[in-house]
Design a protein that fits this description.
mainly beta
């Protein structure tokens, strides 16, 4: 593969960018674990966006190599395929697993209510990331939580655990359509105590 673009996204910040059909998008952990809230939109029609409920129905709560990501209704089309994932998905008694389509995004209102901190959450960070593309905050949707380790208890309550991701881990996705992608390096506690950046690399396939 030929590298065409790469950059870092510091913790508690976001970035929007274009990935063309057939390229390879790598989201990595250059220094340590950092959960990524990942939104995506059809570049030709941003109303068609990544559909969490459709992907859960078709692929499950947690995804890895070979799984597809799907767009929202009414389109419900194949948007990405995961082609590489270096995270060691350790088995654990709780059944939790990484790369989550269960949890929603955090927000300023939620952070203020739960922790008393009046700081931006992923809702606001993602809104800022898509603004240069002419998209407003109401386009932000439920994310693909890359590197986030989650599960569901026997009585149906969702939970998260420290990420299994380690320095050097990455996940590769190939888009089936050209996409506007927005990521937030989540400011929440699910990433752990570190302040690590997210790496983004875009490759052309040979």
């Amino acid at each position: 593969m030929r590298l065409v673009e790469n950059f870092l996204v510091p913790k508690a910040t976001g970035k929007g960018f274009i990935v063309n059909k057939g390229q390879v998008l790598r989201i990595s952990q250059p220094d340590g674990p950092q959960v990524v809230d990942f939104d995506a939109f059809n570049a030709d029609n941003p109303k068609e966006c990544l559909g969490s409920s459709v992907t859960r129905r078709e692929e499950g709560i947690h995804v890895s190599v070979g799984n597809k990501l799907w767009t929202c209704p009414p389109w419900e089309r194949h948007m990405f395929t995961i082609v590489a994932d270096t995270v060691d998905h350790k088995s654990c008694p709780s059944g939790a697993r990484s790369h989550d389509f269960l949890m929603g995004r955090c927000s300023r209102a939620r952070r203020k209510k739960r922790w008393g901190t009046d700081t931006p959450g992923c809702q606001e960070i993602l809104a800022g990331a898509i603004e240069p593309f002419g998209l407003t905050e109401d386009y932000v949707h439920d994310p693909f939580n890359i590197f986030m380790k989650t599960g569901v208890t026997s009585d149906g309550v969702s939970f998260w655990e420290p990420s299994d991701a380690a320095k050097g881990d990455y996940i590769d996705l190939v888009p089936e359509m050209s996409c506007i992608v927005a990521i937030s390096a989540c400011p929440g506690l699910s990433s752990g105590d570190g302040a690590f950046p997210v790496g983004v690399e875009i490759f052309e396939q040979d």
